[in-house]
User: What shape does this take?
Amino acid sequence: MTDTAPRPTLEAVAARAGVSRATVSRVVNGGDGVREPLVERVRRAVEELGYVPNQAARSLVTRRHDAVAVVVAEPETRVFADPFFALQLRGISKELTAHDNQLVLLLTEGRDDHARVGRYLGGGHVDGALVFSLHLDDPLPELIQRAGVPTVFGGRPGWSDGTTDVVYVDSDNRGGAREAVRHLVGLGRTRVAHITGALDQTSAADRLDGYRDVMGDADPELVVRGDFTPAGGERAMRELLDRCPDVDAVFAANDLTASGALRVLRERGRRVPEDVAVIGFDDMLPVAEQTDPPLTTVRQDIEEMGRLMARLLLRDLDRRNGGATPAAVVLPTTLIRRASA
Amino acid sequence: MTDTAPRPTLEAVAARAGVSRATVSRVVNGGDGVREPLVERVRRAVEELGYVPNQAARSLVTRRHDAVAVVVAEPETRVFADPFFALQLRGISKELTAHDNQLVLLLTEGRDDHARVGRYLGGGHVDGALVFSLHLDDPLPELIQRAGVPTVFGGRPGWSDGTTDVVYVDSDNRGGAREAVRHLVGLGRTRVAHITGALDQTSAADRLDGYRDVMGDADPELVVRGDFTPAGGERAMRELLDRCPDVDAVFAANDLTASGALRVLRERGRRVPEDVAVIGFDDMLPVAEQTDPPLTTVRQDIEEMGRLMARLLLRDLDRRNGGATPAAVVLPTTLIRRASA
DNA sequence: GTGAAAGCGCTAACAA
DNA sequence: TTGTTAGCGCTTTCAC
Assistant: This one.
């Protein structure tokens, strides 16, 4: 907890190197158009003085901050219940770091925070924003969109009407769900159920759509609502067994849900996969590999999603430099076969 | 992805309100020493123009950034395996937000990143840093300490020699462990084992110390090394059962470890708590409540730890304003009784 | 109580 | 290629 020492300025470096501030500035920012010997002298002076540019002064004139906000709607239990958030963040961080950008994390807790976030984003502290819009009715994303900050969303925003060109990164939830259900059908299962996620999230809705793509004509009783949690999975599985005792396969909206379902199946004496085959979604390793039996599931590359979000945003920020305007990106999923189906 | 609109400046507000820039500045920063009618006029002008101060310009002169870096050593599987990180972050975020500070997240991935973080912290972009130093041999914390940025650590740093006054926030790991083991002993158990955490982390070492405080004279075979993961817990439990078949209680270094141990105990046909009582650490709800049987455990208030870290740092930053220099804080733990012990 | 003026440290025309 | 100069938008003495 030392006090801040007075830091050397461009001026000081210039004096020491015997050149002008402008030259030092050039060298510090890449050094093109400065002759080698001078570059060398400046470099040495920088070194000796331990000069570090003052970001505030630089931003003041460049209007660039080399900083990106990551906005996460917080009350989401889900954000904490699974490593989703952390993994995505890691991907984002890596990409940002690779391009010398800083990550400003904005966690929101409610109404008040929305205003705060809006103000912050509108306040020109950051060059852009990466936003996770988990719920259909979340007012935040639109608010941000209106703030006029370049933004990339994580997951397809629910309010996206297809008209406005929102940029987002998402997994192919629908396609992945289709693949899972097809696999179940291919196993010869005929009573394939689906435990949904929280349906106010597009990922859950899309997975349900995927299920219906394949099982459109199936007994509607086979679809039961969950909420992405193990507890929700248990509840749903019980309901399912009561309603349709002949169910022989379950596609759960995520691995956590599947783990809950598995527990109930065991409790009720159903063997997995012999009596009931189970497939999850996510391939969350600590969950999928620990269940009994290990979970067959649909993998999505979460870290890559984060990386991609950052990449799209940075590209957009650079579009003046000839880059094209990015559009939404949907990443493929993979079926991972383990023992449960 | 709109282009940035030209934002109004202090100058513009001053013109509109018919006052000087200085007066507007005063109003914007609290408004003391300005007469009410003027305050009112300025406020209105700010409102009408949608004025938001330019942080860069302000920082340039005040040398304050109202921003704090949170540094997390990343490769830590643990950071992603449990909600620890997210919870702590939430606490930090809340406190920071309450004091109008921004959270800049620095995730590090290795050697190269250390230099980068050092540079960033030394570069005066933030007013202080909150650092998680998980491993004893992590070079980062010391590097940061040397950067001269006010810093608060999360968890007692391993290299803290007691001489230098590092400020940190930690749970009473040792005391909590003692309480857990005493509870086991109080239950009449005589062969109380301990599955440790990753011993290169102070939290694990401290919990082991707590165990020894109570069981100092016990069979050393009863202590077996884990790594804070369920898999580690399984491995350790197997070893334990082989080595000491008469074990009648287990204190696991955390809930994840305990869940692994529980699994093995079930597999080997030992009843919990009848044959073997089990206690965890953390009270990580999604884990502790979902185990079978539900886990008795030592709770630590993780979010509060985060909040406290931020509070200590902010207080230090304000110490010029009469605050005292903060010291380390150790939070108490609570034993939560469920069914496993 | 209010305003005028001097920078904070840097970049970016423009001259040389 | 290098230097000179004029701000970027704000806070903060210092006069009034």
User: Anything to note?
Assistant: Residues 173-299 of chain B form a domain with the Rossmann fold fold (CATH 3.40.50.2300). DSSP finds 14 helices and twelve strands in chain B. Chain B touches chain A through 58 residues (CB under 8 Å). Chain B has three domains: 10-62, 67-171+303-333, 173-299.
